[in-house]
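The aim of this short unit is practical: by the end, you should be able to scan a pair of folded records and say something sensible about each. We start with the first protein, listed as its amino acid sequence and then its structure tokens.
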Amino acid sequence: MPAYFGAFENLTLAVFSSVLPKLPGKLEASWDGVRELNWRMEDALQHPKIQKTQEEINVLMGLPRNAIFQPPKREEELFVFHPGCDAPVPSFTRPTVVDEDGDEGHEFFVEDPETGDLVSHGPTALEDGKDGDSGCWYVVLHKPAVVLRAKASVKAEMVGRKKTGKSMRVQKVVDGRWVQLHSEELPRLGVTEAWAPIDGAEMGLPGQPLLQKM
């Protein structure tokens, strides 16, 4: 039964994914988009004609006539379906290193023969880099918000906003003027790359920091 419903959900989402972006408002091709559609349909389903059409759809799908389709809850989503194969691929916030055995990691530990304790040994990627900026968090200082851009330029396309007091995880700092958002920040923006300015001079506000490292 779980396998059946898992396959049913994947098939259903595949159909929704092709339809949702074409609807007014261009809903997101995901379970969030399905939830938004259900919320918008609550009032419409009070109309007898709409109810009848929904019942006919249920019958065609092999469901009970009065069935109510409920997308999985957020906490139940272990995997997010991306029919367009456009999901962001998460990566480490810091580059890995390789030891003498060819193993890859951020840091390596070996057992001390005298004490039996594990101690750091060999190359490490966990020390602060040149700018100390790998895999860190910044908080927005600028009011009312900081504009997120597709590239590290004020002329680049706007891809979102971060309000004052909100934090963001970054993976790279460029010249102390721009931060590149970590891949974990990108799904909610629906983009593959996003940047935020640190220096107010980028926006004609010299001497005013827009972000602060946490």
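Turning to the second protein, read its sequence before its tokens, just as you did above.
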Amino acid sequence: MLHIVVCMKIVIDPEMPFSEFRVDRESKRPVPPSGVPPLFGPFDENALESALRIKDCHECRVTVLTVGKTLPKAVLQRALAAGADEAVAVEDPQFEYLDSFGAAGVLAATIEKIGGYDLVFTGRQGADWDAGVAWAGIAEILDLPCVTLVRSVEVREQTIVLERCTSDSIEVVESPLPALVTFSSEVGELRGITLPSLIKAKKREITRWSASDVGFERASITELEDLFIPEVGVVNGYLVPGETPREMGHNLARQLMEKVVLARRG
């Protein structure tokens, strides 16, 4: 049976109103807004949806894996309700604010502990820091081939064929198993969750491990110097005079030449 491990990160809702976003300058951390529940990042949901599409067509087991200090059960239950077979939460106080290197190390150690995997799926980047490098660390540690920015996967006997998005085209790539794949928004949103499936998911157990359970000791290796919301000043504008677009164009050119932004020809 094919086994897919989907790495998913629980984040502050990236669609929350900007006015609700706060930063604690002293602790250098974002302040979770009251009344806005955390959720899985959208790119990670793309990865889960891709795994579930494979499960729709093949005999397959899907394990959702997430890491953090204290992980909300309700968010993990939604992954189970969507169709995942198992949810694994690795919790430890030192995992509250992992950098990309620490996250890659913890996830790789946990994937090795889970074992028996054929594919590791991740989103293209987290929806909080947008670093987009943890997947590269996982692939390096586990010595896996890695294909990024994928929109679809076709599973064959011992290989996968993937459609990969580039800036101006679609690449078709083939990779042996096991492999790591990152997904982007071209996949489409995670399928809808029905009330009966959510009720069933609430009765299922979630595997919870600590750092010692997965044999991981060191987490972050980077130090955050500062974190703040930049002040946006008032921009002084200039309305170009003129009765017609042609006149306004001439007046604008004259102003630019006076300020030596443009040079007069001839």
